Amino acid sequence: AQSVTQLGSHVSVSEGALVLLRCNYSSSVPPYLFWYVQYPNQGLQLLLKYTSAATLVKGINGFEAEFKKSETSFHLTKPSAHMSDAAEYFCAVIYRDDKIIFGKGTRLHILP
Amino acid sequence: DAGVIQSPRHEVTEMGQEVTLRCKPISGHNSLFWYRQTMMRGLELLIYFNNNVPIDDSGMPEDRFSAKMPNASFSTLKIQPSEPRDSAVYFCASRSGAQGTGELFFGEGSRLTVL
User: Fold this and answer.
1) Which of A1, A6, A47, B20 has the fewest Cβ atoms surrounding its Cβ within 10 A?
2) Per the CB < 8 Å rule, is B108 touching A105?
3) HEC string of chain B?
4) Taking CB atoms and an 8 Å limit, are A45 and B106 in contact across chains?
5) Per-residue model confidence as pLDDT tens digits over B69-97
């Protein structure tokens, strides 16, 4: 069955530290991948997307993600966390049947 | 562009009442999605339309839920009768572009509380 797994429903990092949010997908066919961010009481906003061009994708707010086919992963990183990065982050995958599947989300907490 | 517009932003109703949520997608987008978000179940796809036609409604929880898209600029999600377990945030999203590559644009959601 097609699925998206985000490891860790909550992640805490100190301000200025590296942010790493993990996403793994199940697929035998390279999919299209997305990271979204949701701030409190708002809808989801696109951070970045992978559509089979460069494997390292840069997004907004200093985030980037690397597509690794051998590991079926699309982890999200940011070198230095900022307080404003506190939010919930969702990984999403589109398969060839056009079905979009979201992970369960990871809430990022930034410690002062 | 105004983005995806949803109404109402908040709705509080009593069990048994009919609830209608509304969505206006981004102009020119040809796919529209309804999601439900709860703490327990996360983000669930309820139904999606392509060119106003329902493509996949397998996520609709039960017959109490129905969705329509009478034209390219408007969709409704109706719950009748509503139950407390329907309390959630309901998101509408739209998409354009080539199939499989276009990202979703989300509205700000409708927070439903059923007492």
Assistant:
1) A1
2) no
3) CCCCEEECCEEEECCCCCEEEEEECCCCCCEEEEEEEECCCEEEEEEEEECCEEEECCCCCCCCEEEEEEECCEEEEEECCCCHHHCEEEEEEEECCCCCCCCCEECCCEEEEEC
4) yes
5) 999 999 999 999 999 999 999 999 998 86
